[in-house]
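Replying to the earlier thread about multi-chain prediction with a worked example.

Input:
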Amino acid sequence: MSKSAKAGKTIRVNRAFGDIVEGEALVSTEGFSPRYDLDRWSGLISRPGHALEGHNIKGKILITPSAKGGIAAGWAFYDIQNKGIAPKAFVFGVTNPVMVQGAVFAGITITEGWSSSPYDQIRTGDIVRVDPGKKTLTLVRRGSQ
Amino acid sequence: MRLTAEEKKMLRGDLGGAVQEALQLQFEVGKFFGAKRFVPVSNVHMMGDIEVMGDSGKSFLERAAQSGAKCRQPTTTNARCIDFAHVEHLKQDANEARKEKELIACLRKMDVITADTCINYQTLYQPHLGEHVAWGDTGTVIYANSVFGARSNFEAGPAALAAGLTGRVPEYGFHLDEHRRGTFQVNLKADLNDLADWGTVGRIVGSGHQDYYAVPVFTGIKRSPTADELKQLGAALASYGSMGMFHMVGVTPEAPTLKAAFGGRKPKEVMTVSNRDIEKVYAGYDKQGNPLNLVVFSGPQQSLLEMKTLADLLNGRRVHPGSQLFITTSNGVKSAARELGYLQKIEASGATVLEGVCFYILQNLPQMRVREGWSNLVTNSAKLANIIGAHKFNTILRRTAECIDIACSGRDVR
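Result:
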């Protein structure tokens, strides 16, 4: 973790869809699949051994390096959105079409690719803003931890 | 994106609200990936079952069906979560079974062919080289791209349905030559004599390269692989690596030579998979002191040839008392297996053969696991060994005959 990262620091994303959102970051060093990793009734990351096991994605901005398998994400995102347990945004390093199709269908903000690694600058609990129009991910303020 | 006159009409709503919404979804996805235009598709395969889509997805489909929307191209369905003949036996939720039936009726109203199979490429439709299709279930997509040389991205349920309604998809990803070339080379120095060995290769290669656009090029193949072997390889690459395409030099249509497979580019990496690597994967599975009382052949569904193999292996044997053996396949394959007497041999052992479903999406599976006292799940499918983890199973990958031995003895053979 770089101690020099300050509020206002902006990372560029390569591709983006959705509304501008601001919220608490949930940062994963491991890829994500709503099919394999998520309890779709509670929003908890349920797969034993996942880097975020026990964390809840509800209302968070999920920052994750990659998408894993699973066509089912297309319906799953719509499902969790309608159950009120969806994250505000998915920020992927690399993703696959399923995640994008699912997020667009559910109306959840999604981005892919980054100009510099968010892992050096953003940690779980920080408040970040995703602006799909400007293709930016910005650290708004440090979390309390 | 450049739109044709017809696409402009669709987007304006001239062809109805469902088509308009469908094209809007496809347009946004196309924009995200930088697509310049749409391409027509000849065949669509979609995932749509109650466990995966939930009540909200069902309501969406009901609205679309009520509006009179119909698929413009042949659209088939992937495996579902309920075999209606086994709802009581598996103590599945009658209410969910009712919803699944309503969902099927709704899809049929939209002219969807509810074939409920994840092996459409073996049983329903074999696209030709260069044919654009819109398939869902990652295993079907990687098979279409790699083995047939057809062109498809992963199309999730709503996206595949959109393709069915509009008859097209945005042109990005594997519809374009640039993404179909190999990116790294895998030299196979393993014997690969069982389906599980092929899945293991998929696990090893996929785990280390979790990237949709990573395209492995396999070399060193010792003999021509069968369709079922390529099915296990592809399903595992897609499951562990989120990959949508591979080449196999001298085997798959876009890889007559190593040079052609890479399209003039140099491999980013060259890796080797040996017998030792494969054995190491098998050795890494541990029963954690719990009973081996559940064996499953599923994910993907079994082909008729696999059903014959299982019938031959089980012939005259009995599933161990207290253990359960599940096999999933399509309605078509199950019917043929019955005609041929394979099904009777399998069922005489005490095994349960489910049709139209995949094990890992079975409705009520988490509750079933607790009720039946299942902790370990033994399978010859590397894909299943990966994805069932979300339901808190400890999985053990074994070769096909070993799985049957475990089912009949309750003991690991290693």
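Strands of chain A lie at 10-17, 21-27, 61-66, 89-94, 109-114, 127-131, 136-141.

Feel free to reuse this layout for your own posts.
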